[in-house]
Design brief:
single chain, 3-stranded antiparallel beta sheet, mainly alpha
Length: 287
């Protein structure tokens, strides 16, 4: 699909000779536009196949977060009477839970679907070459609907429960971008690793279960002994949850949380991209 051929004095990419002034810029623009078209096509295909034959169809994107919220709130918030310390709200624990699920659910949706995306379409990539990055990008893109629903539900209920508008709400778009970047980078890394070493998929499935309990989603960090708080900075998803709670609800977070989140975003986002690109030669040989 990369209409690229060599021509004596230069090279042609999608009809543009890259040895002319400004040709590299035109070729880069052409590649970006081509990738955008492919991503939109595969996104549409993803949503069609994900909900094909389903009675509820797209409504499952709403049912999943609501069902998870109801189960966690019913079992932990009601049965175990867990509260949300530091929140002057009638349903403080509910707000804490919503903040955590708004981060956790799209993250696990993207990782769960993305880790095996290259292996699942191995035959397709062999017969119809295309930028392999598209497939992990589609897995992350498919989680954006769950993310939008989660954040919308969280923010609307926060206001209806009496949480004031804060200047720190301005951080929320940046936190969402950080979430998308580190999720995409980790999905790139894991999808390539799983393609090369098939045991990775099983390891990831187990690791996500453990990761959930190491992240303050169903329990507030305030219920963890303070001497352990610094260890949560080694968990990128915990950093995201704590930062979202701080920005939207004014909850306290350990010092250095935002710096740790920035470091994780650069490490996972940039590192995942670098690993994927550096291993594409091995991917090509395997195909």
């Amino acid at each position: 699909m990369r209409n690229r051929i060599g021509q004596g004095a230069g090279e042609v990419y999608m009809g543009v000779s890259v040895n002319r002034p400004g040709a590299l810029q035109q070729a880069s623009s052409g590649r970006a536009q081509h990738a955008w078209v492919l991503w939109r096509y595969w996104m549409l295909r993803e949503f069609k196949t994900r909900y094909a034959g389903s009675v509820l169809g797209l409504s499952w994107a709403f049912v999943q977060p609501l069902a998870t919220l109801a189960i966690c709130y019913g079992l932990v918030g009601t049965a175990l009477a867990v509260r949300g310390p530091g929140l002057d709200l009638a349903n403080g624990y509910l707000m804490h839970l919503l903040a955590g699920l708004a981060v956790w659910l799209p993250f696990t949706d993207a990782i769960g679907r993305g880790v095996g995306c290259l292996a699942a379409y191995e035959d397709f990539l062999r017969k119809q070459p295309m930028p392999a990055e598209i497939l992990p990008a589609v897995a992350v893109g498919g989680s954006l609907l769950v993310m939008a629903i989660g954040y919308a539900l969280f923010l609307v209920l926060s206001l209806t429960q009496g949480a004031p508008l804060r200047a720190t709400w301005a951080w929320l778009p940046l936190l969402v971008l950080a979430q998308v970047a580190l999720t995409f980078g980790l999905t790139l890394l894991l999808s390539m690793a799983h393609f090369l070493w098939r045991d990775v998929g099983s390891i990831v499935a187990f690791a996500l279960q453990l990761w959930f309990y190491l992240t303050p989603v169903v329990y507030p960090l305030a219920q963890v002994p303070e001497r352990f708080h610094v260890w949560y900075l080694l968990n990128p998803v915990a950093c995201l949850v704590l930062a979202v709670e701080w920005a939207a609800l004014g909850m306290a977070m350990p010092g250095g949380t935002l710096w740790a989140l920035l470091a994780w975003t650069l490490l996972l986002g940039g590192g995942g991209w670098w690993f994927f690109r550096s291993m594409k030669a091995a991917l090509g040989e395997a195909l």
